[in-house]
Amino acid sequence: MVHGKGFKSRGKSLKKQIIIDTALTVFHRKGYRSATLDDVAHELGLTRPAIYHYVSSKEDLLSQIYIQAMEKFFNIIYEIPAMELTPPEKLRLFISRHLNNVVIENLAMFSVFFSEENQLGKQEFETIQVEKRKFSKVIENIINDGMKQGFFRQVNARLQANAIIGMTNWLYRWYKPEQSVFHPDEIVEQFTSLVEKGLMKTVSESDIVVDAEYMDVHATKLRTKSQIMQELKASVHKTASLINELENYPDTA
Prior knowledge:
Helix content: over 70%
Number of domains: 3
Structural class: mainly alpha
CATH architecture of the largest domain: Orthogonal Bundle
Largest sheet: none
CATH class of the largest domain: Mainly Alpha
Shape: elongated
CATH topology of the largest domain: Tetracycline Repressor, domain 2
Radius of gyration: 31 Å
Strand content: under 5%
């Protein structure tokens, strides 16, 4: 944490970011409603009036935290649909990114994000709701694609998307990195396994659709392999016969 003289030696934009980061820590520890600008100033070794050179109010600080959270929260997820991956791979990547990059590595930010949205102004609150719906739609579309392509069982995609998001978001309520016996990778794997077991088709459920061209190509490969095996067997047999003849041939030495 930058404090006192260390703060004063920084540039203006960096100072503002330091104030935002400090406010995030204070809001996470005390709760937004209980925290004050005096608390933030004290944490930095500054006076309250000094804070006003960079932000206009406590509400402004909360707004800045939400803007930065949305950039981290949504952008890394919005990249996933365009990737050349199967729906199960996209869903696995979503869970991994959401848990690791968002909830675990930025736990304080997203604890504030998920718990303090009712403290935002009306316009900012509505912006958050729009982004949340867009975010949920990304997961819903992945699930729909997975059903169409035969990877997933037939489910209510919207309900399933909400269940997945709810499960992953709730991590901020119980995960304490300094106390947890669970490694982040273990959490990701367990959550992913739980989702996949609920969504993935079993072999008996799958509709096996075989492309004729695909089968022709592989049949040709099988025929080629069979021919090669026959040729090798013939070659081995011929070699064995020659060895037997040589063994029976009189030694002239």
